[in-house]
Design a protein that fits this description.
This protein folds into 2 domains: 72 residues, Orthogonal Bundle (Helicase, Ruva Protein, domain 3); 153 residues, Vaccinia Virus protein VP39 (Rossmann fold, 3-Layer(aba) Sandwich), CATH 3.40.50.150. It has 9 helices and 9 strands. It has a 7-stranded mixed β-sheet.
């Protein structure tokens, strides 16, 4: 990793070297990322890592860690390096080139959960358009038992297989149908909730027929997309209230809810 003489293969020594490399790469949180990568490699938490500064690492561990740090310094995403993604308490497996949840994915889930809990209790159906690694669909299934079935739509068969494998790890494939297809046409029946963290992948004109009375469409939009998305929602859901929920930094959540028997909203 550098031209210095070989140092003892201790956790503390490797962390110092890694932090220096990531600092030189101008990453914003080099210390935290160095600890996160080493913790993932050794299978321990950051707290336990710091409590064992004199722990010896094997030559293979040192070599692998150096390679991981070099990849991160080159700009590769942490989950692609470690093969794992922590999403709302779920440990999701990620392939080397697998898609990551887009910005606003967690906000989509949080807003969907808030919307769900304002409704009259009952069994609900949902659909996610462009599910990717499956993080949003998995979080909805794991965190809200009202969703008795979720259609997770994805156009890439390889990506869908990886998402299905994540569902199997959490025994959620009885709730989630992983649908090979694209857009709302792949959703086989009207649902109560449509979610999408990538609104450019959804044809809003097709949304109303895919929503049950009182159903909602929730998607994340950045500033560049906001006006176009708002206009598309108003035109496609002309008989439904449309509003934007601010969430601080990051994308806003645009919510369109059809008139119906939902409580609240």
């Amino acid at each position: 990793m550098d031209s210095e003489p070989e140092a003892p293969m201790l956790v503390t020594t490797q962390l110092v070297r890694a932090e220096r490399v990531l600092t030189n790469a101008r990453l914003s949180t080099p210390r935290e990322e160095a600890r996160s990568l080493l913790g993932s490699l050794l299978g321990v938490s950051s707290a336990l890592l710091l409590a064992q500064p004199d722990r010896h690492m094997s030559p293979l561990e040192v070599e692998t860690y150096a390679a991981w740090i070099a990849r991160r310094a080159a700009g590769e995403a942490l989950p692609h390096i470690t093969g794992r993604l922590d999403f709302m308490g779920l440990d999701i497996m990620i392939g080397r080139h697998g898609p990551l949840p887009p910005p606003g994915a967690q906000q989509v889930v949080e807003t969907a959960l808030e919307w769900t809990r304002r409704r009259v209790p009952g069994e609900l159906l949902a659909a996610e358009i462009t599910t990717g690694c499956g993080a949003i669909a998995l979080a909805l299934a794991a965190l809200e038992p009202c969703y008795t079935h979720i259609y997770a739509v994805e156009a890439s068969p390889a990506t869908l297989d990886a998402a299905r494998a994540n569902g199997a790890r959490y025994l959620l494939n009885l709730v989630i149908s992983w649908v090979d297809g694209e857009g709302l046409d792949a959703v086989p029946e009207p649902v109560d909730l449509i979610v999408c963290a990538q609104p450019d992948r959804i044809d809003f004109i097709k949304a109303p027929p895919k929503l049950r009375p009182g159903g909602a469409l929730i998607c994340a939009v950045d500033e560049a997309q906001r006006l176009a998305t708002d206009d598309a929602l108003v035109r496609s859901c002309s008989m439904a209230p449309v509003w934007i929920e601010g969430r601080g930094e990051g994308p806003a959540l645009v919510v369109a809810q059809r008139w119906g028997n939902a409580a609240g909203g």
